[in-house]
Design the sequence.
């Protein structure tokens, strides 16, 4: 009947099976197949009831996201039409769910009269993460089944709900051991034989009636979600749809949902969030490292240096159930580092986000040593000692001698040349960079830095390891600062120049925060600590090209002993024990002084100028990185920025955002700035120029 939807008759029950790997996405062909199967089953006297299920790994991953925004639009029937027809059936319809029922997949199940799920199933309405609302009745049927407060939680968070909880909430009717399709056929048969009345979610009202005429429920919910939802449109739209479910008849509520769905689907935010979805999946694909490249199993790990980064990295392994040995220079350093790890876990336990038992299990996976001899078993070693080439080479020489020949040796260096580190070993093919972001146990990004000799097996193994330890690994090449920090530098410089020209730190931070970043450059500096960068700049002073514009403002702050939050003063001041930045007249005074000392007549700097001057050079640097082949694709750069720096997902990352702005606009400004300042950091990237002149974007590459 259809390639993607099959039907078999079992005991008078038509079992309709979605057969569209990998996720049984509900694209046009599946929808048509489903509608035909349904029509046939309705017309067939040998069919008393129906079961809807999915073949392969899951019930359904929902609508086919690739169809969104397609031109011409995908064919009919639309999903809501198919689901409404299922719900309207006079013959009982049972959903047999396993794996996942997500988005439109769950909405399809909600249209069925009974929902049974296999143990281990997870359901969700993740549309909000794609910048849209559930668009096939989900916002109207779910509250009718589980009540408004629970529906708000499920729909606005978009999070996975495990089967047992879904059963308790009332999303599922039963969770079954054994074969779920067998159970569903039996249930359908029983409904027919025992004439059990059909319950249609759309026709129930009592659960939503509880919240009818109570706007305060929604006001309170919006207040609660405000921090997490900052800048996003979709969470608020979800609330609006659920409020419609509470207050309007089903048909009107559905019309509201439809209208909002269609509007959001066309929005830049949804385009950006869909881009993010695919970008996250693209990163795993590496041109010269095919999918079937053999990977080494990682059963045990070691971390060298248990400071700020090493401690967090060790936690990542323990969290993933991988035993890890931590190596330090002395017992004292070990005790200190392990103490911080234990306190970190204890804090998570006290917040109720980890059980004491799990904490003990994780700590039990972390062993420690001061002897290289204890590292001979490790499959992978991550080095996180001080940022010093001579020291790193010394450590890698020792590791090369102590570790088994097949072990991968990784460095967490943030600025040093991975090839030079690799050359201290006899196995440069097994050396790679794993650049974690601070705090390493929290931040999801790993820039995996390929050296000239890193083998395909080493790269494939480390990319897989990133996933295993719950990170998103992006493969990058060697350059100063790699992808993220190199682009960050281009942005930071401009911020300092704007201070000299007329802006103040809190103005710049506000513009960047309002753009959607978690914080502005100055609050970020205060959080990270200002002294490390200052020391690096002092070392570089002698070799800095004289013609290059250099702002002394950051150095002047450090000269006052203001190193950021750790000294309660940096670009801002901090009340003891508080992390809230407070603008400080001392700093503003100093900024004015620096302007005067460097001969600037201060002027009004507009918010728009701040945004453009900070962000366009960042994008320009991204284009240079692409040109130089240091990132595989523009979307990889977007992933680096979303996961390493909190670039707002609803803008899709800097390169996607740049396409929306228009590369012509960015190129024109870069050219102007470069003409004005003659600074190589501002030189338009050849790729930017080329794309701008062709009227294309990074997304067209
Ligand atoms: N549409 C189109 N493609 C999809 C898809 C979808 N809904 N879900 C997954 N894919 C693709 C992925 O892009 C990937 O393609 P690739 O191999 O070319 O990179 C492939 O399917 C496999 O996906 P994953 O690598 O993510 O596979 P996993 O097994 O790790 O995860 C999953 C499976 C949990 C289902 C995960 O893919 C997922 O979360 N998918 C999206 C679910 C979702 O957001 N659904 C809502 C869609 S919107 C909707 O339904 C609107 C409705 O309300 C009208
Ligand atoms: P840190 O100073 O907090 O920790 C370094 C640790 O290494 C100390 O505990 C020290 O005792 C130990 N150590 C020094 N020599 C050693 C040796 N020979 N053998 C074993 N241990 C030794 O430094 P941090 O911040 O953890 O940085 C470590 C590395 O991570 C550096 O390469 C740094 O550039 C990089 N990095 C740092 C980030 C950050 O935000 N702090 C972010 C990303 C990378």
Sequence:
């Amino acid at each position: 009947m259809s390639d993607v939807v099959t039907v078999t008759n079992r005991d008078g029950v038509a079992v309709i099976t979605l057969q569209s790997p990998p996720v049984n996405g509900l694209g046009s062909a599946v929808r048509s197949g489903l509608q035909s199967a349904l029509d046939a089953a309705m017309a067939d006297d040998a069919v008393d009831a129906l079961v809807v299920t999915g073949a392969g790994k899951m019930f359904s991953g929902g609508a086919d996201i690739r169809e969104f925004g397609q031109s011409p639009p995908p064919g009919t029937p639309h999903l809501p039409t198919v689901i409404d027809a299922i719900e309207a059936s006079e013959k009982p319809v049972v959903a047999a769910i396993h794996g996942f029922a997500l988005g439109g997949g769950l909405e399809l199940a909600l249209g069925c009269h009974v929902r049974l799920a296999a143990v281990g199933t997870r359901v969700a309405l993740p549309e909000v993460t794609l910048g849209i609302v559930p668009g096939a009745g989900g916002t109207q049927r779910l509250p009718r089944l589980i009540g408004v407060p629970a529906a708000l939680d499920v729909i606005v968070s978009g999070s996975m709900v495990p089967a047992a909880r879904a059963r308790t909430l009332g999303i599922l009717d039963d969770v079954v051991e054994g074969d779920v399709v067998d159970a569903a056929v039996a249930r359908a048969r029983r409904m027919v034989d025992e004439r059990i009345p059909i319950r249609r979610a759309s026709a129930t009202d009592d659960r939503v009636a509880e919240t009818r005429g109570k706007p305060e429920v929604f006001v309170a919910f919006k207040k609660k979600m405000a921090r997490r939802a900052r800048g996003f449109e979709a969470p608020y739209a979800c609330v609006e749809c659920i409020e419609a479910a509470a207050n309007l008849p089903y048909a009107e509520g559905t019309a509201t949902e439809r209208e909002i769905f269609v509007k959001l689907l066309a929005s830049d935010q949804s385009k950006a969030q869909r881009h993010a979805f695919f970008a996250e999946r693209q990163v795993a694909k590496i041109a010269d490292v095919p999918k079937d490249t053999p990977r080494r199993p990682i059963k045990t790990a070691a971390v060298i240096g248990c400071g700020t980064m090493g401690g967090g990295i060790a936690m990542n392994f323990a969290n993933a159930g991988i035993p890890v040995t931590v190596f330090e220079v002395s017992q004292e350093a070990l005790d200190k580092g392990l103490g911080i790890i234990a306190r970190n876990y204890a804090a998570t336990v006290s917040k109720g986000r980890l059980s004491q038992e799990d904490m003990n299990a994780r700590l039990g996976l972390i062993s420690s040593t001061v002897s290289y001899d204890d590292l001979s078993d490790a499959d992978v070693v991550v080095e996180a000692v001080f940022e010093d080439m001579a020291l790193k080479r010394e450590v890698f020489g020792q590791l090369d001698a102590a570790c088994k020949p097949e072990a991968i040796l990784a460095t967490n260096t943030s600025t040093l040349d991975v090839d030079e580190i690799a050359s201290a070993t006899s196995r440069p093919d097994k050396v790679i960079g794993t650049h974690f972001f601070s705090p390493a146990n929290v931040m999801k990004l790993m820039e995996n830095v390929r050296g000239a000799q890193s083998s395909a097996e080493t790269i494939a193994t480390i990319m897989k390891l990133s996933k295993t330890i719950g990170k998103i690994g992006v493969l990058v090449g060697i350059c100063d600062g790699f992808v993220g920090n190199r682009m960050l530098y281009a942005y930071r410089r401009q911020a300092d120049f704007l201070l000299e020209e007329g802006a103040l730190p809190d103005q710049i931070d506000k513009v960047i925060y309002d753009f959607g970043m978690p914080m502005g450059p100055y609050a970020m500096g205060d959080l990270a600590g200002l002294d490390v960068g200052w020391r690096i700049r002092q070392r570089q002073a002698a070799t800095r090209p004289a013609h290059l514009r250099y702002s002394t403002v950051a150095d002047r702050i450090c000269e006052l002993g203001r190193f950021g939050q750790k000294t309660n003063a940096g670009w801002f001041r901090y009340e003891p024990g508080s992390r809230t930045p407070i603008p400080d007249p001392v700093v503003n005074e100093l900024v004015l002084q620096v302007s005067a000392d460097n001969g600037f007549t201060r002027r009004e700097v507009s918010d728009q100028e701040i945004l453009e001057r900070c962000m366009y050079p960042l994008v320009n640097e991204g284009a240079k990185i692409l040109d130089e082949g240091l990132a595989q694709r523009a979307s990889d750069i977007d992933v680096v920025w979303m996961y390493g720096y909190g670039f707002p997902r609803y803008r899709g990352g800097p390169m996607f955002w740049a396409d929306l702005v228009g590369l012509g606009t960015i190129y024109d400004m870069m050219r102007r700035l470069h003409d004005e300042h003659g600074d190589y950091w501002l030189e338009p990237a050849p790729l930017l120029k080329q794309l701008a002149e062709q009227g294309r974007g990074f997304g067209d590459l």
About this structure: The chain has four domains: 5-260, 267-289+604-701, 301-476, 503-509+517-602. The two ends are 39 Å apart (CA to CA). Residues 22-23, 25, 61-66, 79, 100, 102-104, 107, 126-127, 130, 134-136, 138, 278, 281 surround 3-hydroxybutanoyl-coenzyme A (ligand 1) (CB under 6 Å). The first strand starts at residue 5 and ends at 10.
